[in-house]
Amino acid sequence: MRRWWILGVMVAMMGLMSCAPFSRDIPYATLESRYANGASQYMDLSEGVRMHYRVHGPEAAPVLVLVHGFGASVHTWEPWVERLQIHYRIISVDLPGHGLTRAPSGHSFSAGSNAQLIEELTQRLNVRRLTLVGHSMGGAVAVRYALAHPEKLDGLVLVAAAAWPREQPRTGRTPLAFQLLRTPVGRALLRYANPRLFAERGLVSAYHDRSMVREEMVDRYVDLARAPGHRALLSSDRNNRGDPPLRPEDFAGIATPTLVIHGENDRIIAVEDSRALAAAIPQARLVIYPDTGHMPMEEAPDQSAADLRAFLETPR
Asked: What CA–CA distance (Å, rounded) separates 189 from 5?
């Protein structure tokens, strides 16, 4: 069965190569003209990374740092930024291989290395205390940061986090792009094919309300995936090799007050993962939203933002 699947992917790959003119990189200057805004800033960090981030809210307010999931960007946080920027200093970031952040050829990443970039950025911005929010893959980054830098955290927020260690594959309906990342042939396909072939299907699986997947959203995901070097970086087999594996008992070492958020109808990360996280982290509170998929901050923006604010304002 596996042999036939690989053969099918190879045939598809040969067919898709005919689409190569439609999968060329889009220059950063073009992407920045489309997707940067007045809050966009850039900082040169270690290992040749030029990070794009946005800053909203009063300078003296408590700081929130928001870290997106795989394939996403700062844009996924816009509903929370709109609702919370009056009360908080909000810093949202694009990780390497995502959004408008540039990384050199041959760069690879892990949750731990991305956590270190967050630490470097916040140091350079003179942020001494913060609440760190991570969604999906960004949740794994947030967990690594919490274990490495607990002294800086006022709070930790894990949104549909891909952080709970599993011996078996996650039970969610894995998007095709993630399935392809598991094989050399699939990674080659992702590196050269037009991202549009996977974007809409992957986004539809992320939202409970599929009508939220509109043409402009698909266009943005596709455009940013075509930034120079992004596809090569995200499809690299060198990623996620540098971190020691986490064990369930490691989460007991997170002393930071933690809010765990998940959508009941998440088809990508099983809600049981968040239940396990909330049970393992000593000071964790769990909130599960009905009729919500993998993107609670977008699908339930009013309630999730209110719950986040209530968590942040709870006396420690």
From this structure: 14
Sequence letter at residue 66 = L
Cα separation of the two ends of the chain: 54
* Percent of the chain with pLDDT strictly greater than 90: 74
Domains contained in the chain, CATH given: 25-313 (3.40.50.1820)
SS3 state of residue 278: helix
As a whole number of angstroms, the distance between CA 268 and CA 173 comes to 6
303, two tokens = 């309630």
Rounded Cα gap, residues 176 and 199, in angstroms? 9
pTM over 0.85: yes
Q: Tell me the per-residue pLDDT of 164-204, one tens digit each, with 9 for 90 and over.
A: 997 655 544 566 556 655 666 556 666 667 788 888 889 99
**Burial of 196 per CB tally in 10 Å (0-12, 13-18, 19+):** middle
What secondary structure letter does DSSP report for 102?
B
pLDDT exceeds 50 at position 18: no
How do 40-44 and 63-67 pair as beta strands? Answer: unpaired
SS (H, E, C) 165-227: CCCCCCCCCCCHHHHHCCCHHHHHHHHHCCCHHHHHHHHHHHCCCHHHCCHHHHHHHHHHHCC
**Max Cα–Cα distance, the chain, nearest Å:** 59
The phi, psi pair for 279, rounded to 5°, reads -75, -30
Q: How far is CA 22 from CA 16, 196, 236, 302, in A?
A: 10, 9, 22, 38
